[in-house]
Amino acid sequence: MESSAVNKLSQVLNELAVALTADESQQINKQALAEHITENELDEAGSAPSWLMDLLTAVNDRKVTGHWVDFKRGTGDDTNVFDFIRHLHEVLPIQYENNEESWLLTFPQLQLEACISLEGSCYKVSGIGDTWELEDALNK
Fold this sequence. Notes:
By secondary structure, the chain is of the alpha+beta class. The chain is 38% helix and 17% strand.
């Protein structure tokens, strides 16, 4: 295990946890967060894909992408990455919505949502309710 890889993912998640609990109404179990990383085998160098780090960093920095960002799936099995995302709401105070072809992670305290399109292999970080705004406007 390379500590810099662990530290990068852990650091982003710990910073995000602090931002999500700034009003102190909730506490984050940092041990559970670390276990979530380990259980999904994202604790080794290169195991967390760059697109996941970019998505989490954008949310943490409160930056909307403004457009869909394409990502490449791993050459092997992406199960661990997607399990990590699908169960992130169990260790962070966020909401998770499975829309079959896409997943919506809502960060109410930050007024952001992140949508991951499984069908299109892309993601988008938007203000809450804005993910489909442009597409809806174009379809009217």
